[in-house]
Give the backbone structure.
Amino acid sequence: MIYRILLLLLTTTAFTTGDPVHISMSIRCSPTNSVYCGVLYVYEVDYGASHDVIKKEEFCVDPALYKKDFSWDYSGGDASPQYEITYQLSHNCTSKGVYRCINPEPVDVWVFGEQKVHFDLNAYENGTLSACLPMY
């Protein structure tokens, strides 16, 4: 009986606390090397009303490489054994400076143990032809 309680306690603890996820973003604007701007949301997908925003950043960069490393420790946890991490990027890295929206499918990351996620993209002329809708 004690072993069952202990097993239940360990399982519950594992599902309610997550280990850190280290995220790195690299966004290039090739072939141009001009200044471009963007609004970036990195988030954990929740299937329901809202997502857990990990990072929101507005930026303009010159040279045309945006690079950022950060960590996320979701101590709230949920019932899933993995996180679904993705981003939404609204940017004007285009030949005419018009805004485009990039919102890829999420990457599955295990909750257990420290994890690393790397997003590397060339934003030039990529995405749907309009700015992204604000997340919130």
Summary: Helices lie at 2-16. The first strand starts at residue 21 and ends at 28. The chain has one domain: 2-122. The chain has a mean pLDDT of 84.
